[in-house]
Amino acid sequence: MRRWKMAAAGVVAALLAAGCSSSGGGSGGTASGPVTITIAENYGTEQNATALRNLAAAFHKLHPDITVKIQPQNGDNYFALLQKDAISKSGPDLAVMWTGLFTLQYKSFLTNLKSEIPAADLARVDPNALKWTSDGFNAANGPYVIPLENQFYIGFYNKADFTRAGVASVPTDWSQLYAACAKLKKAGFTPLVYGNGGQPISATFYPWYDMSYMMIGAYPVSHWQGLYSGNIPWTSATIKSQLSNWTKLHSSGCTNSDVVTNTNNLGQFESGKAAMMVDGTWDTAKFTSALGSKVAAFAPPFSVAPIKGVVDFAGDGIAQMSYSPNAKADGEFLTFMTTPQAASIVNAAGLIPAINGTTTSNPVNQQMLDLVSKGGMTAYPMLDNVVQGDVVNTGSKFLPSVLNGTQSVTAALQAMQTTLNQLPSTQRGNTFP
Predict the structure, then answer these.
(1) pTM of whole model > 0.70?
(2) Residue 374 sits in which domain range?
(3) What b-and-e string marks burial along 384-411, b requiring 16 or more CB atoms within 10 Å of the CB?
(4) Exposed site from 9, 136, 286, 357, fewest CB < 10 Å?
């Protein structure tokens, strides 16, 4: 999950010191009569916020005695607020939680939902989604989060721009991407646009969308644990080669010149001035609204050989706070999230439900699903959810300047490796927590 990730680093130690328990939610129950449960969220104005509001309204119709109150929070201090509330046990009943290592590092104040939600209801959720919210990334251990949606880090391209430039097929490797860029640039388009897209992550673009695909191009998914443990150093020749190819995108004119300062990359893509961008499913509905059938999805081809993987990952969802006094009502809402009705609400918001057997009515979102189900691509997690947050933050600081050509590949990767080496051994073992 890419939202405001840098703001979350450094709060785990305080949570552990506070001694919050993750086992307290199961014994509670709702008070007799009407009850109100609260959900903290950091979605801002994105489609996820619409989906959550509509889920709350639909749930209340089914359960008139349970009112769901949504509590929007600022993204830049969201996890710090959850930490404070966990220590004082005065916060929300439920909260938006990112998955992967974020779930596990905050589990000290979350409830394991294996005993909260009936097994038959949990079985409706995509098991690949549940696994990334469970101890050891094993769904059998029980999830701490019910995913809201399946997310893709993905490439979007404008089919009309490709046609005008004479690009006959979607590129699948570095060499094909450079060739497509040359044709698009000659035709007057920005081939691949970068910018912060108005996201309150930092003043520059978020580099971990691209890093995910560079590591897809470098290693099978089974090897990614080595990036966490350090068995694959960030300074490896393979990773250096991938980033060197990446920097050529800017130096060869494949990107906009102002990659580290551009704030209008979404508008440039929606207007057709830019032919490609790397983004995610949270903006799919925006793109299909602006471009209609001209927009399509593709796996960013950051690979020497044809790219064979795609980031398909349940990046966030709803977790129950261990101190919630309304465990029964919380469980009923989380169980509702596993239903076909909830899936239809998520789909209507322009997102991809994380429920088995469901599809999406947005044709570009469905195209993403088809890359895995029909195109034979391997589903990968979001890289920034399965490597340490401190390493992610260091990469976010250095990597945009690498693409811009003002920071060397070697220096950036050494900074990331140094950050990893400084972590305690408990945060870089040969198995995930």
Answers:
(1) yes
(2) 151-313+357-433
(3) bbbbbbbbbbbbbbbbbbbbbeebebee
(4) 357
Ramachandran category for residue 253: left, alpha or beta (phi over 0 → left; psi -120 to 50 → alpha): left
Phi, psi of 170 (to 5 degrees): -70, 130
Q: What is the CATH number of the domain that holds 111?
A: 3.40.190.10
99, 313 contact by CB (below 8 A): yes
What confidence tens digit (pLDDT) does each residue in 84-121 have? Answer: 899 999 999 999 999 999 899 899 999 999 999 999 99
State pLDDT tens for residues 319-336: 999 999 999 999 999 999
Torsion-angle region of 180 (φ positive above 0: left; ψ -120 to 50: alpha; else: beta):
alpha
How many domains is the chain built from? 2
3 state DSSP class of 57: helix
Q: What DSSP state is assigned to residue 377? A: P
Q: Is the dihedral of CA 169, 172, 176, 178 positive or negative?
A: positive
Q: List the Cα angle 206/106/138 in 5-degree steps.
A: 90
Residues 83 and 97 in one domain: yes
Q: What six digits make up the tokens of 231?
A: 């068995």
Q: Please say whether the beta carbons of 143 and 318 come within 8 A.
A: no
Residues 288 and 179 in one domain: yes
Separation of alpha carbons 311 and 298, rounded Å: 11
Look at residue 319 and give its three-state secondary structure. Answer: strand
Phi and psi, residue 180, nearest 5°: -65, -40
What would you report as the CA-atom Rg of the chain, rounded to the nearest whole angstrom? 21
Distances (CA, A) of 35 to 26, 60, 63, 88, 333: 17, 11, 10, 21, 12
